[in-house]
Amino acid sequence: MRTIARVVAFGVGVLCLTAAGASASEESLAGRVEPLLVRAEPQAIEPGAPLSARALVTHPPSIRGLLSWTVESRRHRGGLYSLSLSPNGKLVATGGLDGMIRVWHLADGQLLRLLVGHDSYSGSVAWSPCGTVIASTGTWDGTVRLWDPKAGRQLRVFKGLKGPTGHAAWSPDGRRLVASSGFSGELWMWDGSADTTETVMELGHPITGLHWSPNGLTLAVQSQQSPVTLLDMETMESRKENVRSVGDASTTSFAWSPDGGQIAAGSSAQCTIFDFASGDSVKKLDGACVSAAWSPDATQLAIANSRYAVQIWDLETGKVAAPVPALASHLTWDRVSQRLFCLYSTQFNVFDPAEKKIVLTSPAALITPASWSVGRPILTGLMTDKLSLWDATTAKHLRDLSGHTGAVSAVSWSRDGKTLASAGYDSSVRLWNADKGETVHTLKGHTAAVTDVAWSPNGKFLASGGSDKTVRLWDPDDETCQVLEGHTAAVRALAWSPASNQLLSGSSDQTFIVWDAKSAKAQRTVQVSRPVLALACATIGNTMTLACGTTEDQIQVFNANTGEQMTILRSGGSPPSVTALAWLPTGPHLLAGRGCHKAQLWDAGAGKIVRSLEAMAPVSYLTVAGNGNTLVAGNSDGTVRFWDSESGELRGVLLNCGDHLVQLSYDGQYRVDPDKQPDLVFVALTPDGQVMLTPDEFATKFRARNNPTRVKLVPGR
Q1: What is the pTM of this model?
Q2: Do 139 and 120 contact (CB within 8 A), yes or no?
């Protein structure tokens, strides 16, 4: 196997409204934001139901005093999508792929609160101006939620929006909350003073950003296919000003100056500063801009470019004043601390412009799953230059494999389990003695990153494919290889025939090639519809059958001997891609991993889905265990999920926590290396709200004893 990289709870909540006396027509906010106590909506939880569809504990046992509970990693599972600072600058809220909202203490980077409720990933978090409420959107669950972060209480769940919810933003006075939803570009608004909701407008295409002016009079609405819409929030009338800086290119970023007098609008070519009143261009800063943030004194502008590199520009000179040693897809410049917050993928960094250095790095997310194979040690370290091996039964660390000088992109075990092959961005393939942790051979020849590696079923050959457009067929004993040329773009996937006599390679050039392993000659080249991401080969009946997954929402099944297309298996989803494939040993059943966070079990003969499994993240790899009774998916939220193929029930999850592994069962039992302190927290829902506890605190308070022997991810193991 190889891996490529109904009880009802009531409570009192807190909402924020502006104190009386402030006029909405004033140039700046004169009203003082005060908290207003309101009764929270009842939260309905069925007995035995999980806290959310994304909770790791899917069948929480009943515990006296609790409505439900789950176990979570301290860090986010999967990428970070949003960040919001508390008004006092002491706390930061983050949301991401796992759907959980986490609240961090900025002084030491410690996790203070974990809020569970969304059934899909969280696209946006927004702290209210008074600092007592967090708003979040749940994308595909179609909701906007309000949270009391201090009590851990879910206050409101707004439903009925017109599709996936995206961005959320509070008015500066805290009286109104706007959010985007759906592919038609719905602008939804909740008026907190009247406690009413309405659809303000529909743009006709998805909204990509919402930005209140500092005085709260204007809302800027970004979209994918039109100029930025400037909406007068008193009259609800819009005037479309083309603030895009080049031709018809979409605006990629938008930021108001602190006084609202100017706008920074980024594009793929430059960032343009506009005067808000006149609409005139004031200054142009060369270079792509995906995010921008003004300094509190408006003399500087931080810009993240298309490669997510960050620079601070002096707006008087129009030149770069200082580079920022951090990557960012989202920038926030805090007016309290005067510091710049850089959010990117798995972490956020805090840059102090005065000291010209990063003062806090918070590794807030995990994205790479462990590599799990039947009867082999568990492996971690993909997308880094060091691999680690772990005992599959005890989760205890065995040894490290160091030697690559670039990130490891793929691994493959030999048939006897004695040798591990690893492919790297350093253009090499390494063969390891897994028992000793030593390099046996370093195979060199590729001239660019190696993207995949695969042992032949008989163990005699090793194939590798790379960004140099070649496939190489290695004799693992003497390091010699044959170079297989024919692709015109990077090789993305490899698969062997069961008899080891044929090798198949798929490429970004929208072809797969069938190679004769003995002669190293191409037997046929087959054109497919999109760039190839995954291949899987099996003998079904007397036919060597190849399944091919691409960047679109279909699986093409071929007779590999003739190149004839036998069938197309199509299923929608967003993203549509088919990212991994694996045949079951029991007939024409095919397991497909999707970019749309699903693993689908197909009856390829009948052309229908037998079972659809929630992977909760894009699938990175698949494998099948126990003669087909266990389906396994490694996902880009740092988890490996194990399902019973008959029932479709989740047996449990293998969680990669970086320096240790956690094996977690569906009912909350867990196994971890006894020498490691598990990087876990328990989230318990009481009638008063959600409580976050350490494993020891949870066990003591609720007399809930952990029993590692009950963790059975695969029957009999």
Answers
A1: 0.91
A2: yes
